Amino acid sequence: MDSQFLLGTGLSRTFGGIRAVAGVDVSIAPRDLLCVIGPNGAGKSSLVGLLSGAITPGSGELYLDGERMTGRPMHAFCRRGVVRKFQGTNTFLTMTVRDNLMVAGLGVAAYRATPMPDPDAVLEEVGLSGQACELASHLPHGARQWLEIGMAIMCQPALLLLDEPAAGLSAKDAQRLVRLIHRLRERCAVLAIEHDLDFVQSLACETWVMHRGEVVRRGSYAEIAADEEIRRIYLGRGATHAAH
């Protein structure tokens, strides 16, 4: 299956009778860049949970490079290159910034054919070289976001799943993150969930809209923003984003 890394068919999951994901088909090729938008409760995080192995589908199938992964644990997905950054920061607070990167890299190094990335190069890539010896607990929220992205890079992802990566970042840092994501797609596919529509627009990539567990639209951000129904439900009629 050379043309696609991840394939999901008919993915569904309910929680207590609530339909979180409903019959979603997903096909992600190497170096794809995708963004998923939609209101709270649309099923975005649940979909990412399915794609990362954190949630087992109630129905549907998942394949990585042609290998069936349905029902396998999250660590099996990670070993195959599916790496997820969660919405909140999740770092080792009593360890230094550099040691956080080392732990992340060593955690998957045994399952990779290539050497672990140079942590100092990753520190530079995420703009934390000057804070390498600081404890993670001393970092402000925005810097912890960068640290967790660096930890994800250390895991050598084939597919990087980002849950609201721009949360807590300044407008300037959000644009720096856009540039980093575009560099990362030279190495891996990236799927991001995001509420910041300026950020989504800047990514300039294929955008999926979720509503009530379904992917109701797929297209460029410009196409999504020009869709009258999507403008009414998600962007707000007459919103400035829709005019871009």
Q: Uncertain regions: pLDDT < 50 for 5+ in a row?
A: 237-244
CATH level-4 homologous superfamily: P-loop containing nucleotide triphosphate hydrolases
SSE order, one letter for each helix or strand:
EEEHEEHEHHHEHEHEEHH
- Which bin fits the share of residues in helices? 25-40%
Q: Could you say what the CATH topology is called?
A: Rossmann fold
User: What percentage of the residues does DSSP assign to strands (E)?
Assistant: 25-35%
Report on the biggest sheet. 6 strands, mixed
**Shape by Cα distribution:** globular
Oligomer: single chain
Please state the average pLDDT score: 90
Task: Supply the number of helical segments.
Answer: 9
Distance from N terminus to C terminus (CA atoms, Å) equals 37 Å
CATH class: Alpha Beta
Return Rg in Å: 18 Å
Instruction: Give the total of domains.
Output: 1
Structural class: alpha/beta
| Strand segment count | 10
Task: Examine the secondary-structure arrangement and name the CATH architecture.
Answer: 3-Layer(aba) Sandwich
Order of strands, main sheet, comes to: 6-7-8-3-9-10
Write a structural description:
The protein is α/β, with parallel strands linked by helices. It has a single domain (31-48, 74-243), classed as Rossmann fold. The protein has helices at 44-52, 74-79, 97-109, 119-125, 141-154, 171-184, 197-203, 221-226, 228-235, and strands spanning 6-15, 18-28, 33-37, 59-64, 67-68, 82-85, 159-163, 189-193, 206-211, 214-220. The strands form two sheets. A six-stranded mixed sheet has the order 6-7-8-3-9-10, with helices on both faces. α3 packs across α4, α3 (97-109) packs parallel to α5 (141-154) and α4 packs across α5. The model is unreliable at 237-244 (pLDDT under 50).
